[in-house]
Design goal:
Largest sheet: 6 strands, mixed
CATH topology of the largest domain: Rossmann fold
Order of helices and strands: HHEEHEHEHEHEHHEEHEEHHHEH
Number of strands: 11
Distance between the termini: 22 Å
CATH architecture of the largest domain: 3-Layer(aba) Sandwich
Strand content: 5-15%
Strand order of the largest sheet: 1-6-5-2-3-4
CATH superfamily of the largest domain: Nitrogenase molybdenum iron protein domain
Oligomer: single chain
Length: 326
């Protein structure tokens, strides 16, 4: 699977979770974020055979120092989340929303961590093991505080409360240190920044308010922009905190640097090299563009640490005259 396919899968996952918001609300009323299911009463001991049916939640579990016995489509985790690394012996339990029940039965998990999008299958899943429903932070108006809270919910459920606190403290430290380093070299903060990923050679997905990326930019002191401020020309964003715009609209922000998330495929690079519009963009002619590492826009706290450090490195590269797609 190529990187754009991976990003598309991540976005499809996020959109699916939003379309199930009504189900999520019902789940909240019946114990969202709590162990549920007929076997939950018996789950008094710390679970040690955990299955996760979501990649960002897998990231969080690994960050807590717990390796799951099974994960949905683990190879996709390795491509769209990347870190923490997922051991090769973790079993593939099927697709995100179409698990293989025979494999689940053989694994005999004592906890399954799912999302609100799994609500239609929860009753079946709970015949096998208690479930813990997390992941609503992706549809929250303030996703960063919600992500932090859910990290601690998971930590409590798997008996790793201290590890959860350590993840939060480490995240605070990484972000504070990045902010301090950026502030010491003001030339890196002169220009506002557009954070986007390529959909194709003519359209981009631009991240703004309501996204985790925007929250990270604000925390480290970087001005994130998503279109001209106010008026009819503003770029409309959906509930995910991003806008899909044509490449031409980047001309509306000639003063902004452009940071592209994730790897750019060779075919995309070739198309951009032949695009007169792309080559004429102010961020390209002034070498104020850079590529960030692969980071899922709805990833966990490790992903957000990596994003913040990637932004710092990219702005340093631009300030030193080395901007470009590399």
């Amino acid at each position: 699977m190529n990187n754009e396919t991976g990003r598309g899968v991540v976005c499809a996952r996020r959109d699916f979770l939003r379309r199930t918001s009504c189900l999520a609300a019902a789940a909240a009323a019946s114990g969202l974020g709590m162990l549920t299911g007929p076997q939950a009463v018996a789950a008094s001991k710390t679970p040690d055979r955990i299955v996760v049916m979501d990649w960002p939640l897998t990231e969080t579990l690994l960050a807590l120092g717990v390796v799951p016995v099974g994960v949905s489509a683990p190879d996709w985790y390795r491509r769209v989340i990347v870190e923490p690394p997922l051991p090769s012996n973790v079993v593939n339990v099927g697709l995100l929303y179409s698990p293989n029940y025979d494999v689940l039965d053989e694994l005999a998990p004592d906890l399954m961590i799912i999302t609100p999008g799994h609500a239609p299958a929860r009753a079946l899943l709970e015949r096998l093991a208690p479930t813990l429903t997390l992941g609503r932070y992706t549809s929250s108006a303030q996703p960063y505080p919600a992500l932090r809270a859910e990290t601690m919910q998971m930590a409590q459920a798997v008996g790793r409360r201290d590890a959860g606190k350590n993840v939060l403290e480490r995240t605070d430290s990484v972000l504070a240190e990045a902010r301090a380093r950026l502030a010491r070299r003001a030339e890196r903060l002169r220009r506002p920044v557009i954070v986007a990923d390529l959909i194709d050679d003519r359209h981009l997905r631009v991240y703004g308010a309501g996204s985790l990326f925007d929250a990270m930019m604000s925390t480290i002191g970087v001005t994130n922009v998503i279109g001209p401020s106010g008026g009819a020309s503003a770029w409309p964003t959906g509930s995910g905190g991003f806008a899909v715009v044509s490449m031409q609209r980047l001309f509306e922000l000639p003063q902004a640097s452009l940071l592209l998330t994730g790897d750019i495929r060779p075919s995309q690079r070739a198309a951009l090299a032949q695009s007169a519009i792309w080559q004429a963009l102010p961020s390209m002619t002034s070498r104020c563009a850079a590529v960030l590492p692969v980071v899922a826009p709805n990833g966990g706290l490790i992903s957000m640490q990596r994003f913040a450090l990637g932004v710092e490195q990219a702005l340093t590269q631009i300030a030193e005259g080395g901007g470009g797609l590399g």
